[in-house]
Amino acid sequence: MNNPRKQFSDSFASPLKEVAYNEGLRKYMLGVYNYMGLGIALTALVAMYFAQNQNLAIFMRSSAIGIWLPFIAILGLGWVGPKVIFSGSQIAAHGIYWAYVTAWGFIIGPVVGIYAGAGMANMVYEAFFITAALFGSLSLWGYTTKKDLSGWGKFLFMATVGLVIAIVANFLIFKSDMMSVIVSSLVVLVFSAITAYETQTIKRLYAEGHEGANARASIFGAFSLYGTFAVLFLHILNLLSRLRGD
Prior knowledge:
The protein has helices spanning 4-51, 54-62, 64-87, 90-117, 121-144, 153-174, 177-207, 214-243. The chain has one domain. 88% of the residues lie in helices and 0% in strands. The longest helix has 48 residues, at 4-51. It is built from 8 helices and no strands.
């Protein structure tokens, strides 16, 4: 026999649970974007340093050590980062995230420094605002869409590997401006899709319930999205530069 008192209690408990869930999700996603914003701020400081030290910026963009060491560090940290974030302590999660952001800073900083030193700082700002608008709109779509994007994962992974190979091949072998434009255009398309996919994945982490690990999950979310934002920014900047003949 149904218990009227229990039914009455459950009718109030369900909306309260939904409110609590939505509030928790809001705080969790806010944590993701806060960490990411701090990462971008650190990169901006690194870029300012290189803008004021042109010789160092040129050395970093022209020497094998300056180019390949940060690139290898990013790949290595990108591989081990998720494992460390979820299996280690919160201190370890912070350590791997800030190491990752710093490695990206040594890729982006010299590029921005050289543009600024050549009197093209406005192009850098333009690329940043285009990236922010594109990233923000696609991240919002990934957060709000009811469409399941999990099926995109394998395709996006394969596309990313192909693009990395194309970038390295053009850098070392072809050295073609036209290929650079084509590859950067494809990167922007693929990583725009990755932005939406990763945002939904990050949201799903909360929905699946990582009890006691949401602080680390927020760091993981920032870790994932920061790299995507950085790649978009570099290739949008490259497109603006190539298409304007600078």
